[in-house]
Structures are given as structure tokens and as C-alpha cells.
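From the thread on structure requests for the teaching lab: each student submitted one protein with a one-line request. Submission from student K.M.:

"Model Putative prenyltransferase from Pueraria candollei var. mirifica, C-alpha cells only."
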Amino acid sequence: MDRVLVVSSSPNAFSVTNGGNLWQRKYSTNNINYPNPSSCVSKASQHKRKTQIEYNLLRSQQPSLNHHYKCIEGGPPNQECNRKYVVKAAPAIPSFDSESDASNPKNIFDSVKNFLVNLYYFCYPYTMFARTLGTISASLLAVEKLSDISPLFFIGLLQVLVAHFFMDLYINGVNQVFDLEIDKINKPYLPLASGKLSIANGVFITVSSAIMSFWLSSIIGSRPLIWSLVLCFLPWTAYSVNVPLLRWKRYPLLAAILMFSSWGVVFPITFFLHMQTFVFKRPAIFPRSLIVSVVFLSLYSLGIALSKDIPDIEGDTKFGVRSLAAHLGPKRVFWICVSLFETAFGVALLAGATSSACLWIKIAMGVGNAVLASILWYQIKYIDLTSPASTISFYKLNWKLLCVAYFLLALIR
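Reply posted by the TA:
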């Protein structure tokens, strides 16, 4: 790599002057005589080639440019001169090492991998997975015969899944952006709170996701889908954004109603109507199976909304968010949540037992919901309400049980 000679008055790196006991032997290459450094410095700009040759000779004699040399300027031997000239090697052209590292396929792969991992945790994967299964479950409620499960059905399902994927990214993103300081206490593992994802990138992902969601829905042209996105965007923005009259998460009743209305009412009804009216071109109806799903999900989503605040009491209290768990205490809210979950499983079990479907569906509904209720009841005795890790595991357990319940709800007729 080509280098040029940079001369400064710093004492660091490498001092060179004329005469003295440093230059006890003379360098001669092609009859080149070394002038004293004063003339070199003053005429450096006029003698670049000569200076370059001089530097190369010095560099060939010295293993490192970090050595410090003393000199004499017009004085007796061993007398240190008052002025030192520092020779530093600066690259004339940029190094290609960093560029080759950046273009290394392994480094590119690692960067993409790290970004995708951070994006995975940025979007709260368990909520997105549950919402995806909820979309499939509600869409299957519109299936009246086996021939309905056709490419047309899957295209309609994909339309909802993709549009709501970006809306989920927006909802989870805007919550993390405005909860950054709270998450540093409650959820320090999240990408924004841990610093693995910058605020600028988080804001960009959030805003672009909302734009993509509405753009896709406008292209698709399904009114139920557009209403579903609007009814998610507006209240969940009000839930998180910290401006006057908003930041609804500070009010326990509003936060619970928001969770209940989105997961219990908006999602199942709009997903069903999208498939029923837009895909299958049938009149809008509200069958028994849809009503049972709405009742079950309303109870269950209310329990999830309340249980979410139990592990977040410390951070919420510090930043003035008076959740119901902080107001009533974790133990009382915990048992309210357990009651709501068990009641929801009981409703689904009763609906399956009284269904007009075939016997195997009744058995599946009865046994399935009984097993889910038993798992929940068995696990609650291991929950330590004083441990955030334990209460978080309880919260995630409820999402896992909901994912299984979605399969059972799709069987109700």
C-alpha cells in the first residue's frame, strides 16, 4: 500500500533531525545524500519523490515506526535539539482490508442473520403466531363444504396474513419505541431496550410497516380487511403513543377494553367476513360457531390483558402507569385471570358438547378443552408471584394454550 510522508511537530511516533550520533553511518543509494531535515521540511512540497525515497530507506532500516530518535541541530554531539520533526506514515489511498471484510460473504450473512434475529424479537413472535392461528381459525369458520378449501381460500387467507403481519410489526414496534425506558426495567432483553437495534431503525421499521399494511389492503380491496386494519391501527396507537389524551395503557379499564375488543371482537369477525363476503361472495351472517368464538376469545383476551401487567408492576409503577395489577396487587389479579381462562375453556367445552356436528368433533372439543383447562390448573401451583420470570412464564403459557384452542374453535359448527 502506498504511503506518503506527513511531517508534524508532535513528539510521538518517530523523530528525525540532522547530524548527531543518530546518523553515524551515511546512507547512500544511487548517490543520494540526505540533507538536514530543516531544508527537507521547508522544501518537502517541492521534492515529493526525493522525500518518498528517503522515507522508504528509513523504513527499510527500522522494523517499526514507533521508535523515538533524538538529533542534533548545529550543536555539539549528544546535545538534544529543541525541535523535533515527526514522521508519520499515512495511507495515500484507503485500505481495501475493511472493504474486503465488509464484502466477505460470511460477514454479510452474519449481519443479515443478526438483523433477522433482532426483528424476530422486535415483533413479539408469540403474539404474531397466535394472531396467525386466529386468522386461520376464523377463516375456517366460513368453510361450509370441503370444496371451499380451494386455491381461492388460500389466496384470501394469504391476503389477511400478509397485511396483518405488517400491522403487527407496527403495533409491537410503536409500543417498544414509546416504552423504551420502561422496557429497560421490565424487558431488558428486547432489541431496542438492549441496544441491539437502534432507535432510528426501530422507528423506520414501525412506520414503514404501517404504510405497507395499508398499501396492501388498498390493493386487495377487501372492506372487512381494511376495517380490521383501521380498528387495529387507531386504538393501539392510542394505547402506546405518549401524547395528551392518549397513552391509554396508563388507564387499566381502557387497556383491558382495548385488548378485549381487538382479540375478542375485531379479529374473529373481520377475518370471518373477509372470507365470507370478499372471497366466497356470500351474504354476511353470524353463525353459531362465530358467536362461540367471540365469547371464548373475549374472556380469554381479557385474562391475557390483565396477566400481562403482573410481571411489569415495577417498571409501570416507576413511570406512572397504574395498571390493575399495580392497583389491586398481583395475587388478586392473578386469580381473576385464572378464573377468566377456566371460564373460557368451559364455554368452549359446553359449545362443543351441544354442537350439531358429528360425534368425533364433540369428543375432540370436550376432551381438548378439558385437557387445556387441566394443564392451566396444574401449572398455576408453580407460579411465584414475587418472581418476574415466573409470572412471565405464566403469561406465555396462556398464549400457548390459546394457540391450541384456536384449532378446537375451528371445529365448532
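TA comment: The domain at 293-413 is CATH 1.20.120 (Four Helix Bundle (Hemerythrin (Met), subunit A)). The mean pLDDT is 78.
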